[in-house]
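Problem statement: downstream parser choked on a complex file, so we are re-checking the raw output for the flavin-adenine dinucleotide run. The parser issue turned out to be on our end (a line-ending mismatch), but while we're here, posting the original submission so the record is complete.
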Amino acid sequence: MGAKRVIVVGGGVAGCSAAIAVAKAGLESVLVERMDTLSGTGPLTGHLVQYVARMETKLLDGGGKEVIEALEGLSIFPQREFGHQVSCIFDTTKIEKAMLTTVEKAGVEVILRSRVVGVEKEGNKIHRVVLENGARLEGDAFVDATGSTGGIPVCAEWGVGCVGCSQKCTVFGDRVGLSEAAGVPDLPKTASYYVCTYIHPSSIAPWLLRSIQEEESGYFYYQVPEPWQNHDFTSYWPRKDRPVKNNLGRERLIYLMPFVKLFVSTIPMDILHQFPGFEDAYVISPMAQTGNCVKTSPGAPHDETMRVLGLANLFCSGLRSGDFSSLVESIYTGDLAGHNAARTALGITELVTFPKTTMMGFFLWEIKKGYSLSDYPPGSPVDRRYLDVGLDVMEPDRIHERMNRVGLLGLFGQRPI
Ligand SMILES: Cc1cc2nc3c(=O)[nH]c(=O)nc-3n(C[C@H](O)[C@H](O)[C@H](O)COP(=O)(O)OP(=O)(O)OC[C@H]3O[C@@H](n4cnc5c(N)ncnc54)[C@H](O)[C@@H]3O)c2cc1C
């Protein structure tokens, strides 16, 4: 009998983490990506938050550890306190290469420019994925890490249509979710929108660029000019049937990643040009200015092991698995999905879950119960709940001790038996 093989579909951070977890478990790991690079929506990010979950993920010693360390290696600003978290801003222009190097170093076979368009299955078990060019890839277990942004019909239905975003669907074809292709319908969709404007640093006033650069933490709070402080910027979003929430207020967070990332997406250019420092601002991101980076949710129905309901050997991760996925959440759900896919391929029936006494488990299972992304910030209901159970404790020894207590320490760094 040949080596067991897991096929991971989608090369964002979740897929990279899953694919490395499979390789670390000692199986053949194949990562299939429709675009010509890895990292998916990663180049739009830049802000690595959720310190405790990040530390827990590293202590698991799976694929997530490699991915997080690769991102931390791109850090522009030292890790600083942000609310009650320690976060890090990294150079997103280097993420694509960093992900490719990291997965290849881990022994993953990467297949780029190959969109999965279907599956071949018998009963509740998938045997092969079918690529757009007709080729078939056989596996013992599979991971759906296809994200939730795009394709073009989704953007048109939930947003203001396709304006050529990072997903490059016009070139590489629309996103296809593996679980849907296998006949498992997604949970009912609700829309959420990423709300940032990306500006070329050379186009803002030198004094503003300097002020952002000199901010030790990397986070700069821009004072919104008086006449616009209480203005309703959401009114510029054209889809009244699908309202967006984000407004400007009195100040707005900016950081360099290394583009100028301004945390609002619905300022018309003619108004932005009236803001001191932004007189000549040039927006580099085609999708952000009207808030048209549409992410739908909640994706594939799954259980606590990330197994897709109704399928024996398909696991899901990252944005594909829920409405709450930041980079760190995408990474550790990728790790869990990859490791459990490896176990399934080996015929091991006992799968791993993250208990709610870990931050990873808390995010996975508490936030699922009706919280939304807007409940995240310090002082929010979700935040207060994890503070209550002591999950905000940042001392490395305490996090280590907690992971040890629940039997997760180094678990994904070993071959499962
Ligand atoms: C504008 C924006 C800003 C953000 N900022 C931050 C931030 O600062 N901090 C943070 O923590 N999070 C941020 N996020 C969230 C973060 O980007 C995501 O949580 C994370 O990158 C999702 O990773 P993923 O692997 O699940 O999905 P994706 O990154 O969407 O990757 C999915 C991959 O699957 C591929 N794919 C899809 N269908 C197929 C198919 N059929 N065959 C083959 N390949 C396929 C896609 O091409 C893509 O590469 C931001 C998101 C956006 C959109």
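For whoever reads this later: The pocket of flavin-adenine dinucleotide is lined by residues 9-15, 32-35, 40-42, 44-47, 49, 115-116, 145-147, 149, 175-176, 194, 196, 293, 318-320, 325-327, 330 (CB under 6 Å).
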